[in-house]
Amino acid sequence: QEKSCRLSAALLGEGSEVSQEQLYELLKYAALGKSHSAAQPSWCRVYHQRHLAGVVVVVLHEMSQLHFYRFYLQFKHLRRVFRHRFTLTPSANFPVSLYGEGTNLKPQSTPQGLTSTSSECMTKSSDLQCDPIIQRYGEKKQGLTSYTLTLEEQKKNDYPIEGSPGCKGYISTECDQQRTDSSPLFGLDCEMCLTAKGNEVTRVSLVDARGQCLLNELVKPESTVVNYRTRFSGITKKMLLPVKTRLSDIQTRLKKMLPHDAVLVGHSLNSDLQALEMIHPSVIDTSLLFARSEGRRFKLKFLAKAVLGKEIQCEQKLGHDPTEDARAALELAQFFIEQGPTKVAELNLEMLLTAEKLAEVSQNKAVLQPQGCGFQEQLSEPPPSSKPCFLDCLQVTGQKPLLLGRQGLDSSGLCQSNLSTSNKQILQRALEDVPLSKFSIIQFSLGSDSSPSHLHAGLHEKVRSKLTDMLTIYAGPFEENFCLKSVKKEFGRCGPMQSLTVVTETFQPYVCIQYEVLEAAQLAVESLNGAEVAGSCIKVQRPVTAAMLDCNVLIQELELDVENEGVIYVAGLKKSVTEADLQQEFSQLKDLETLFLPKDLQSGKHRNCCFLKFQKPQSAVDAVEAINGWTMKGGELRSRNALAPGHLWRWIWQMNHSSGKQGKHIFYEKMEQLSDSEQDLRKKVKKLDHHVKKLYRSLQNNTLCVVLFPGMDSTHGSQSGLGLMGIKDDEGRSAC
């Protein structure tokens, strides 16, 4: 049975822009995969890449994130189909930034006659002889027994050894040393806390050779805990309170689970065995397997990224996941055994680590870019000849990408280029040719005169004004001498406020509140309209303007937006609440996947709200019902469905703070007519959405589709782009 491809992206709440280089990472890995030394992208993950039917990139020329949200209701197909959305760094010349300068697409020939690109280099065989991995294991592939630690190596690296003075009372797994190259591998990892006795196990994970989790158990320490090391272990006092399992129980279970010839794999496995107080004769230690000079060791997090293309031990997570770490160590050992020392040495891990450290030191000057099996370091704008050439990379596979559009996108002859005079013609050619190509770039355009600078500026102001209105509520009437502090406290429970002003032009006073997130304003309208606040029964409503007449429709569509599926908003958090508190408080909620605590982009302090993402939509619905009315550190929580994904939340914040205006609101204003040019643009946008819908429906299942609003970076100003992406599944929408 054909495996279904999946795409995951940790984009909830982050709101950071995806660069052209990061987009290039994704497209390169999706098109080439590990078989051609492409690494998993650093910001998202493609599962079962080799089962992808193809890659289709749709570029909406001269359009930006601004266009998507100004014509949000018109983009009916795009917003309902694609599960992943991200802000894209704008580019002055997007097609060139996507696949390199046309004049530089010619492949260079290496002395060996192999195709090479300007961004990838071959490791010379003479250099390999000096590599610590080759010096230790030689160049030829060997069986797993060649990589298990000898007794002397175990003693040298502080492994528990039978009969050693420090191992009194330790339990043997009773496995023998009669291992063979076909002996089963098991990945092992433990999390420890500091007790009066020293390091004691609090969690144990064991995975088999297929990566299946056989054991993932919390363990109650024997001695008093001094430090839970929650930041690294993820263990809290509350988690261990109900636990009855002791170390002796785990030792008994491990003895039963491991066959007589089992080989344990781990990263610095000696620490795990010492904490388990167990002795095992056959071990592969990945911190020693991927040898370095002078006794240094690579970290597991780095090896997983550089070798496997996997992100583990992410900062967003509370502590390490021992199952994830055990699986990573196991896969690293399997990679080493299957590929052999030479292939591993060719990864040039020392160079990759140096590039990574340089990037960390100079964050604003360096770009860390997974490229092939390694990273490309750019400390300044590279010369044109060193720009990554995506089309050149594809040529390695014998593929000839398809480029369709109104402009000459490629001058290298590496593509099947076809120029058309209209979007309709482009669509027709795409329906015929895309199924025949593994990689396609389709460029639609609004037309050269559809987005002049004055119209673009007008769009920006209208979007900013409408977002401001949607973030704003009016509440009242109040008594003449009402308590403003009580009003601020009550409405503050709905979420972070940007401003609160008293309206005195009316017979009785009202308040005008502008929130920082859409969910807060909607929560105020839903929960406080008709409520008694500061001694008055009040009405809560948004400004009544021509642009706001469809506000309820827009709110409803935002709730149905596929990217908000399974995401809820929680407000009413106290300032003293930390992310660890939230992890602990919400751990009882079923199917909770991700927690995001927004921060003020200027002060860095967290807001009084958070977002929770659940694996199943129904679990999110249940969570909203459960959370409403909860108290946490004295604060009453309020919750509702999410309306704005992370990238939009950040964009709203930037628009409100860059405009220098608070936005003047009145209850009624003269109705404005849409200009002819904007009416025409609305029609074109609707037609474009229909074109993309038709193209998408024609794609094979398991096709990665990326729709790009490239943004603008010109003399008229800069506007961020927007990306939508997903892998088409059997139901005709993008798979998670």
Automatic annotation (TrEMBL):
SMART domains according to UniProt: EXOIII (SM00479), RRM (SM00360)
Organism field: Erpornis zantholeuca
Gene3D superfamilies named in the record: 3.30.70.330, Ribonuclease H-like superfamily/Ribonuclease H (3.30.420.10)
Ranges where the RRM domain occurs: 471-545, 566-644
Name of the featured protein: REXO5 exonuclease
Compositionally skewed regions (Basic and acidic residues) per UniProt: 727-736
Coiled-coil spans in chain: none
Gene field: Rexo5
InterPro entries registered for this protein in UniProt: Nucleotide-bd_a/b_plait_sf, RBD_domain_sf, REX1-like_exo, REXO1/3/4-like, Ribonucl_H, RNaseH-like_sf, RNaseH_sf, RRM_dom
Lineage, top ranks: Eukaryota, Metazoa, Chordata, Craniata, Vertebrata
